């Protein structure tokens, strides 16, 4: 089973991803959630997730700084960033 961690400053996003995604179907289990990069770092150390989903824009320590801090401790980890700014999407006509 793959351990998944979710990091986002919006509670609705954390709740939605935690409960609406069929994690078991993909042999995954959400082991921790955090509402900031600073709160996530000790949880990453504790749970050693295989997969980490994080928001990039968060107050305080954002997702990019958190990933950089994590990678400095675990240099063999790999990361992939994908961003989608939903605030600029135009509704379909």
Offer a quick outline of the entry.
The protein has 93 residues and is an alpha/beta fold. Helices cover 34% and strands 18% of the residues.
Topology:
Blueprint: E1 2-7, H1 11-20, E2 28-34, H2 37-47, E3 51-54, H3 63-73
Parallel strand pairs: 1-2, 1-3
Helix pairs in contact: 2-3
Give a written overview of the molecule:
There is one protein chain. With 93 residues, the chain is α/β, with parallel strands linked by helices. The protein has one domain: 3-Layer(aba) Sandwich (Rossmann fold), CATH 3.40.50. The chain is 34% helix and 18% strand. Strands 2-1-3 form a three-stranded parallel β-sheet, with helices on both faces. Helix 1 links the parallel strand 1 (2-7) and strand 2 (28-34). Helix 2 packs parallel to helix 3 (63-73). The radius of gyration is 14 Å and the shape is globular. The termini are far apart. The model has no long low-confidence stretch (mean pLDDT 82).
User: Regarding CATH, which class?
Assistant: Alpha Beta
For this structure, the CATH topology is Rossmann fold
| Order of secondary-structure elements | EHEHEH
Provide the number of structural domains: 1
Name the CATH homologous superfamily. Response regulator
Structural class: alpha/beta
- The poorly predicted ranges are none
Average pLDDT confidence is 82
Q: Helix count?
A: 3
Range of helix content: 25-40%
Please report the distance between the alpha carbons of the first and last residues: 42 Å
């Amino acid at each position: 089973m793959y351990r998944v961690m979710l990091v986002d400053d919006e509670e609705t996003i954390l709740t939605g991803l935690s409960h609406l995604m069929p994690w078991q179907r993909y042999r995954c289990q959400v082991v921790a959630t955090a509402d900031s990069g600073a709160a996530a770092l000790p949880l990453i150390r504790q749970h050693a997730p295989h997969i980490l989903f994080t928001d990039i824009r968060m107050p305080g320590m954002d997702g990019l700084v958190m990933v950089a801090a994590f990678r400095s401790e675990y240099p063999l980890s790999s990361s992939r960033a994908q961003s989608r700014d939903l605030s600029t999407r135009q509704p379909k006509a």
